[in-house]
């Protein structure tokens, strides 16, 4: 076997190799039909220090594993200064871990990320985080038989073994739930939600409306304020910069459906937000990550196949909690989703220790069908 070398990414050519390597893993000699390629244009902007929002508050080093001239694996090591300030921790992170069926390369990549973090004086490393908890995060450990929905990670089962053999242990698990029309209607669940929602709307006096795409920039900024306050006390939560939030919003703007994006307002002020998105992974898998020259047409042809959505964000300002606003959100997004042909919803991800949310989704008839794990390792 050709000797292994770990190379730090130093130039644009290497960065392109890093970005495009997943195609070799999942579309190579043994194609994985469940993998969904990301949009190359979005990934290139995301990894560009001039545009990627994370680089404003993080230090990043990308690594390639090579055998001769062949790339056999990738990993990032990074420090999230905003996370460490927020949580008073001294910790680094790893992400974008992709590797062929090559245990030696996997071990070397993980060792390299650990060494990079340790050499900067940090006491532990956590991941996968791509790059932060506000981006894609977690390693799939259960539910390999189903394709991922948009912005959820996917990986071969062998990655679990690679990471655990490198002495990483569980930090926390993230759950993905699925709710379908039949389970929602069973046992009078839908009727109960309708009753609670009607009572909450009458008592709170709040107004509920669809997202206004004509005022998209204003809606994004208002949503950013709600997002940062609503999730501030969650495990690992960090303030999402406006640049990061805008990048996320504008990257997926062409694919958003305002009918399933619900805003709660108190006298014109946004106090709550539910963002559900059509599962664009369904048409995206046909585009091979390219919109040009014919990727757009390919996606449009397959757009009619979208029959599910992902409930990506749902939260209200702390002072408006426990007023039944969530029931109004569930009612509105379910009714709007059915009209748009979305008969199934994934609600993800939910922290394993978020008992209120997990129990609520179970009460809606939800079924937990995937688990993702964030790992951690102490550094000597």
Overview of the molecule:
The protein is α+β, with helices and mostly antiparallel strands. The chain is 36% helix and 28% strand. The strands form two sheets. Strands 1, 2, 3, 4, 5, 8, 9, 10, 11, 12, 13, 14 and 15 form a 13-stranded mixed β-sheet that branches. A hairpin with a 5-residue loop joins strand 6 and strand 7. Helix 8 packs across helix 9. It is globular.
Brief account:
With 380 residues, the chain is an alpha+beta fold. It contains 13 helices and 15 strands. It has helices at residues 12-26, 40-47, 81-87, 103-119, 158-165, 181-185, 189-204, 216-230, 242-252, 281-284, 295-302, 325-339, 355-363, and strands at 4-8, 58-67, 70-80, 91-99, 124-127, 129-130, 136-137, 139-142, 169-180, 207-210, 261-266, 269-278, 308-316, 344-351, 367-378.
Report how far apart the termini are. Answer: 32 Å
Helix content bin: 25-40%
Sheet-strand content, in percent, reads: 25-35%
Given as residue ranges, the uncertain stretches (5+ residues, pLDDT < 50) are: none
Number of strands: 15
Order of helices and strands: EHHEEHEHEEEEHEHHEHHEEHHEHEHE
- Structural class, from helix and strand content? alpha+beta
Shape: globular
Number of helices: 13
The major pleated sheet works out as: 13 strands, mixed
* Mean residue pLDDT: 93
The Rg value, from CA coordinates, equals 21 Å
